[in-house]
Design brief:
six-stranded antiparallel sheet, about 900 residues, elongated, alpha/beta, single chain, seven-stranded mixed sheet, about 40% helix, 28 helices
């Protein structure tokens, strides 16, 4: 194809190839120059350039393709018919075909080619040394001429441009290592002498290790010259030192722990070759010549353990699982040692098990100590068993005594409450009749004393129940705000009578409902607040103050932690008494009991109740300055869905006449906002606008004397306004009522959240609202149903064994407008019930022959058998032990009322069940 090509006219040897090195043609000059016959030419056309050019590489293809792509000029051998030609090759594009190259192949001198090949090799060697981080150097002692490669300077941390002499190089070396360099220039060193040593240099503030290799030779001019290489061996040296330290540490640890090493490897005959160290050898009392002889070790094994140990080793060698076995060995002296053997199996590259390495630990001292401990333990256990038996017997005696005490208290409760029921009930009935002032005072005194006796009895029973572990807590939904309101209402009149300021602060974040025991929380607050007021007075110009504060201290999705703090400025408690204050029957001083009364049980009951509820109580007090009791209790979230907010979407105006009511006004606002009200503050001058624009207006006044005329003017102007509420101090309620008889009044000291919400709700709902302090209780009598014709036939059955109580209950029922039949015990009660269709049964629980519990159970069984309608049965009992109510309900009773019975409790029960 190139016969007519200009290629044939070129007088230089030309070889044509494609980009992959495939030969596509030559010109006549090439064939003539290198004696290429037709057969040779055809053979060349079937191959590539790589088969004919030798550029001094084992694999020249990548290098040759690089020359083609870059069109580099190079020297090479051309091999044709086993003949080598030294040639120079120049590469250019084919002017007729850009996908081909023209190679101008010109013969050259052999020495020129050799020089080129040497340069190429040196170039590759230099690249290889750089890649391997090997620096080179040369030093001629006679002329002190030296050479350091750039890589060497880089390795020792010197900039490439820095001039470095042999003496400067040695100066970098740490003093202790310089002696090695003197060996290089000693007279004994002759051409061909090789030296190799390590030395240290400070590099970037750190000691680094380097390895120097050298060889002496005679350079041009027969001068003694040393050349060599240098590498950074810091990492290798550090690894070796770490390995050495690790080995040394391991040996020390093994020696300290008396731990021997053992191993086994498969030899070339696939037999296990065993070996162990001297510590293991000494452990089994073997001779040094016995090391590696497995049978010698086997002979030392305890006969009972030998088979199991060998099987465990074979299992590990077969499966690759770790070896772990505790066994015994018998020494020639007869001594028995306890050995723990452990081993790890190793594998080769093809995952075949080829070795096992392990340790053996002498645990004889441990076993000896265990034997001694076991002996001591056996002795102690025998003593403990004996002591346990004694304690168990003592515990049983204590439990029996406690049970006897509980039963005694339960019975005493019944026996004491039964006459107390007659006393209080009789006094209650006497209050219904007209009496002289002197008689009325005596009746009230007797009633108060009887109530105090019942309170003392309740305290004794409570502490007994708690100590015997029989007091059970209830879990029900209730409102903490209502509990606080209830307790405050009870003690407000007491505080007023003593001229003590009672203040309440409630956190608006306290939820509307929580889950817990409302009765016990009320009991704790009742006791603490009662004590605070009891021991606080207004004397010597100092106003007595008591404050109840309730706040949420933390909460999550499950629990609320609420703190109740009762603070007073009363008599205080000294430090010694504080330590024992929560002990039963303890009061601050004997004189305290004489002056203030009480049993000393209240705080003991509070402390135990708080503990039972999962809380704690903290006391801070100083004698003569007052006390602060802080109770923290956990409460579960209520499962009861909140009812709609009572004041939702209502508009309420707040007006304050006194500047120092800011804090009280702020608290009121927070509570109203918590009830979803919209609250706006108004100035007194805008009261007309406030009354016109809002559902309720709360006007706060803390100084009636200073603002009496202002209030009278407002009252006269807005006498017909039904949404105006005036908040005044509780001590000024009566005076304000006389001035403004038709006004709606509410006490603001204290004002509980429940009282605030209820008062405003009644105003919004247009209900009549009276403060508790406004009600005159002197001549208040319980309303009584007058007997009618339908009451003439007795329709209530009273089952009671005590004649006094029979007579009393009959009179109480008569006072309420009812008539009853009487039965002396449960058997008589069932007989009466079968004969008459009663509407309700009131029964004592503890009676001879058949008590009230089992009478109820029999009546329920008869009703079920005969498919009769269940008659309401209410328990009336003097017992007050734990679980009484639950036990009554479990026996089929409908309700529960404790003695002493007063008219209002009896009326409440009858209203609920008498149909």
């Amino acid at each position: 194809m190139y016969q007519q090509s200009p290629l044939n006219l070129i007088p230089f040897p030309i070889l044509v190839c494609n980009k992959l090195g495939g030969i596509s043609g030559t010109n006549p000059c090439f064939r003539d120059t290198f004696k290429v016959s037709s057969n040779n030419f055809n053979e060349m056309m079937a191959h590539t350039l790589f088969n004919f050019f030798d550029i001094g590489l084992t694999s020249c293809r990548p290098r040759f393709l690089e020359h083609l792509n870059n069109r580099d000029n190079f020297l090479s051998y051309l091999v044709i018919n086993a003949k080598k030609f030294s040639v120079s090759v120049n590469i250019s594009f084919n002017p007729d075909n850009p996908n081909e190259y023209w190679l101008l192949v010109s013969p050259c001198c052999e020495s020129q080619l050799q020089t080129s090949l040497i340069k190429n090799k040196l170039h590759r060697l230099n690249h290889a040394m750089k890649g391997a981080d090997i620096g080179t150097w040369e030093y001629t002692p006679e002329t002190e001429m030296s050479y350091f490669s750039l890589k060497l300077k880089e390795i020792i941390g010197i900039k490439p441009a820095t001039q470095l002499s042999w003496h400067q190089f040695k100066a970098l070396v740490i003093e202790e290592d310089k002696a090695n360099f003197e060996l290089l220039t000693k007279q004994e060193c002759k051409p061909g002498t090789r030296l190799s040593f390590e030395f240290r240099i400070y590099k970037a503030g750190k000691i680094c290790w380097f390895k120097l290799n050298s060889e002496a030779f005679l350079s041009d001019g027969e001068k003694f010259t040393i050349t060599g290489s240098l590498i950074d061996c810091t990492e290798e040296k550090e690894n070796m030192m770490a390995l050495r330290d690790a080995i040394e540490s391991k040996n020390l640890a093994l020696e300290a722990g008396n731990i021997g090493n053992w191993r086994a490897e498969l030899d070339e005959n696939q037999q296990w070759a065993w070996d162990w160290d001297l510590r293991a050898n000494d452990m089994f009392a073997l001779q040094p010549s016995d090391i590696g002889q497995l049978q010698k070790w086997v002979d030392r094994l305890h006969p009972e353990d030998s088979d199991a140990v060998l099987k465990a080793i074979q299992h590990s060698l077969k499966t690759g699982e770790s070896f772990s076995k505790q066994y015994r060995t018998i020494l020639p002296s007869g001594e028995i040692k306890y050995i723990l053997g452990k081993g790890k199996v190793g594998r080769d590259k093809v995952n075949r098990i080829t070795r096992i390495d392990g340790v053996c630990i002498d645990q004889s001292p441990i076993f000896k100590a265990q034997e001694e401990l076991q002996k001591i333990n056996d002795e102690l256990e025998a003593r403990v068993n004996l002591r346990t038996l004694e304690l168990q017997q003592a515990k049983e005696r204590a439990e029996q005594a406690n049970q006897t005490k509980s039963e005694f208290l339960s019975m005493m409760s019944h026996e004491l409450r039964t006459p107390m029921n007659a006393v209080i009930g009789s006094l209650d009935l006497l209050t219904l009749s007209e009496q002289s002032p002197e008689s009325t005072e005596l009746i009230e005194t007797a009633g108060t004393s009887a109530s105090n006796l019942v309170t003392i009895l309740n305290d004794i029973l409570d502490i007994s129940k708690i100590e015997s572990g029989k007091l059970q807590l209830e879990e029900q939904d209730y409102s903490i705000a209502d509990i606080i309101d209830n307790v405050v209402k009870i003690f407000q009149p007491v505080a007023n009578k003593k001229s003590v300021v009672l203040d309440v602060e409630e956190d608006p974040c306290i939820p509307r409902f929580v889950e817990g025991d409302a009765l016990r929380v009320r009991q704790v607050l009742f006791n603490l607040l009662g004590n605070a007021i009891k021991f606080t007075s207004s004397l010597d110009g100092r106003k007595g103050e008591v404050k109840l504060k309730a706040e949420v201290i933390e909460h999550d999705n499950i629990m609320y932690q609420i703190a109740f703090t009762i603070t007073d400025n009363g008599i205080g408690i000294d430090q010694d008494t504080q330590k024992k204050l929560f002990t039963p029957f303890t009061q601050a001083q004997r004189s305290t009991t004489r002056k203030y009364g009480g049993t000393g049980l209240g705080l003991a009951i509070c402390g135990k109740l708080i503990s039972l509820m999962g809380g704690h109580i903290k006391l801070s007090s100083k004698l003569g300055e007052g006390s602060s009791f802080r109770v923290e209790l956990p409460f579960c979230h209520s499962k009861k869905a909140d009812e709609k907010f009572q004041l939702a979407r209502s508009k309420i105006a707040l007006i304050q006449l006194c500047d120092h009511l800011e804090q009280r006004s702020s608290n009121i606002k927070k509570h109203l906002i918590a009830e979803k009200s919209r609250v706006v503050h108004y100035d007194i001058a805008d009261i007309n606008l406030a009354i016109a624009e809002n559902d309720a207006v709360l006007l706060l006044c803390c100084n009636l004397d200073a603002y009496q005329q202002t209030l009278l003017d407002i009252y006269q102007d807005h006498q017909l306004a039904s949404n105006l509420i005036i908040g005044v101090l509780s001590s000024q309620i009566s005076q304000t009522r006389r001035l403004m008889p038709q006004s709606l009044l509410v006490s603001i000291d204290p004002m509980t959240r429940s009282q605030l919400v209820a008062s405003i709700k009644k105003v919004i709902d247009q209900e009549i609202c009276l403060a508790l302090d406004e009600i005159e209780t002197d001549n208040l009598m319980i309303s009584i149903n007058k007997p009618t014709s339908k009451n003439k036939r007795p329709d209530i059955l009273v089952v009671e064994d005590n004649p006094l109580n029979q007579n009393l209950i009959a009179k109480q029922l008569a006072a309420l407008g009812y008539q009853c039949d009487l039965a002396d015990d449960g058997l008589h009660g069932i007989e009466k019930w079968r004969a008459v269709d009663y509407k309700i049964i009131l029964t004592d629980c503890h009676m001879p022959n058949l008590d009230g519990y089992h009478m109820t159970k029999k009546i329920r069984a008869i009703e079920q058998q005969q498919q009769q309608k269940s008659i309401p049965i209410v328990a009336i009992t003097g017992a007050a032990m734990s679980g009484d109510a639950e036990y009554c309900y479990s026996m089929g009773m409908n309700d529960f009322v404790s003695k002493p019975i007063i008219l209002k409790d009896l009326k409440k029960v009858l209203k609920k069940w008498y149909t």
